[in-house]
Design goal:
Keywords: FAD, Flavoprotein, Oxidoreductase
Structural class: alpha/beta
Family: Belongs to the FAD-dependent oxidoreductase family.
Largest sheet: 5 strands, parallel
InterPro entries: FAD/NAD-bd_sf, FAD/NAD-binding_dom
Number of strands: 22
GO cellular component, one term: cytoplasm
Strand content: 15-25%
GO molecular function, one term: flavin adenine dinucleotide binding
Strand order of the largest sheet: 5-2-1-9-19
Length: about 425
């Protein structure tokens, strides 16, 4: 048996990948190695960025660094894993460009445009999704998002008009935060670097109402709050293109052949799965990974391949899904690793009783909706497990500080930032 540890490769180091890595390293790795021939294990965490972007707070971070400094928005991943032995953990900055499931290796491209193949014994796909705008999610190294935020902040200082495209949660939150802190809407003190005259803020919605996945009463309440803050809401319009002009302004072409120009623009038009490196037979029609919704295995990819988080087809693109599915993922990964150990030690039989004791844990997805949307200075709209909550609770649970205080524990220990009975989020 090789002395080199077997790699547990995790692709993606956002909420899902970080939590999977910490959970495996803290306890599971010490519960393995039950046979004489069992290998040692090492987690290899791979991400295009060396830092986690706290995109939960992106709607407020786009307003300016006086509200949210970059040091709060970005947290070092490598620093958070320094306490683990080097023979048990390694971090690689790079992007997956191919996976060979027959040979069990992943091809990674680094920032110097060179590539390397990383063998895996088990593979966790946690690559998540990306927004159209680098303001709202990472688009590679975190420095790109910092540059995008700095450029947006610079334009915002003299902006007389802002267009936000997208009537979903990100669009509504961005419109509310900009109206609150740029124009000083409803009880908020206007930021000193803001324009002298009120900025025209337009929110373009592609549906007949905002927040189409939430109850209509919640949508109506959100629109009322935005309109009272001076936001112009336009429904049933879709963004066809957004072109930055030489002047720095953005020209938006909409689905009714209307063309609008603005000084600052935010694309909040949805998300796309980061799965372009995977073969199409593993993906559904929208590009999400087809994994078993209960046991999280990607059956067509071979042994010990799993998908978790937003990149998986079973996910509702909710951070709650991530943390509710971590325990089944880790338990089933452990079972599969122990099965390999036992079958290697007893290739001709003799481990049947021990194998029968390995019981998989099924993930049972909560089908209710939980969504908190800070809009005004001290409130917003929200539902928890399908039930509407008062505006002030949205402020206490999320809008007060967007949970930035929990970023370090999330990166450093894989903790759930939405853990019950904590009003940090």
């Amino acid at each position: 048996m090789s002395k080199e540890p077997f790699n547990i490769v995790i692709l993606g180091a956002s909420f899902a990948g970080l939590s999977a890595a910490h959970n495996f390293l803290r306890k599971t790795i010490d519960e393995l190695g039950i046979t004489r021939t069992a290998p040692k294990y090492r987690v290899v965490l791979i991400s295009p960025s060396t830092h986690l972007f706290w995109n939960i707070g992106a709607p407020r971070a786009i307003v300016g660094t006086k509200l949210i400094p970059h040091s709060k928005s970005f947290t070092s991943i490598e620093d958070a894993f320094r306490d683990y032995p080097k023979n048990r953990f390694s971090f690689i900055q790079g992007s997956a460009i191919a996976v060979d499931f027959s040979q069990k290796n992943v091809t990674i491209a680094n920032q110097r445009q060179t590539s390397q193949k990383i063998p895996y014994h088990a593979l966790i796909l946690a690559t998540g999704t990306s927004t159209d705008s680098p303001l709202l999610s990472l688009h590679g190294p975190h420095e790109k998002t910092i540059a995008a935020l700095n450029a947006f902040h610079a334009r915002l200082r003299d902006a007389t008009s802002i267009i936000i495209a997208g009537g979903g949660p990100s669009g509504v939150e961005c419109a509310g935060q900009l109206a609150t802190y740029v124009n000083g809407g409803r009880g908020a003190k206007k930021l000193p670097q803001g324009p002298i005259s009120p900025t025209i803020i337009i929110l373009i919605s592609g549906n007949s109402r905002l927040l189409p996945r939430l109850p209509e009463a919640v949508s109506d309440k959100a629109e009322q709050k935005l309109k009272r803050m001076g936001v112009n809401v336009m429904h049933n319009l879709r963004l066809l293109s957004a072109q930055e002009l030489p002047s720095g302004a953005t020209r938006c072409v909409l689905s009714d052949d209307l063309s609008m120009q603005c000084d600052s623009f935010v694309a909040a038009t949805g998300v796309h799965p980061n799965t372009s490196f995977l073969p199409t037979e593993l993906l559904d029609a929208s590009g999400y990974i087809s994994a078993d919704p209960q046991y999280l295995r990607v059956g067509r990819a071979g042994d010990r391949v799993y998908a978790i988080g937003d990149c998986a087809a079973y996910s509702k693109n909710s951070i709650m899904d991530v943390y509710e599915s971590i325990s089944p993922l880790i338990q089933n990964l452990k079972n599969d690793l122990l099965t390999y150990e036992l079958k290697t030690q007893y290739p001709f039989g003799g481990a049947e009783e021990k194998l029968a004791e390995l019981e998989d844990l099924a993930y049972e997805q909560n089908q209710t909706i939980t969504q908190l949307l800070p809009i005004t200075r001290f409130g917003g709209v929200g539902v928890i497990f399908g039930h509407r909550i008062p505006s002030f609770l949205v402020h206490l649970m999320k809008g007060k500080d967007y949970g930035f205080k929990k970023a370090r524990s999330t990166v450093g220990a894989g903790h759930n930032p939405y853990k019950p009975n904590k009003f940090g989020m």
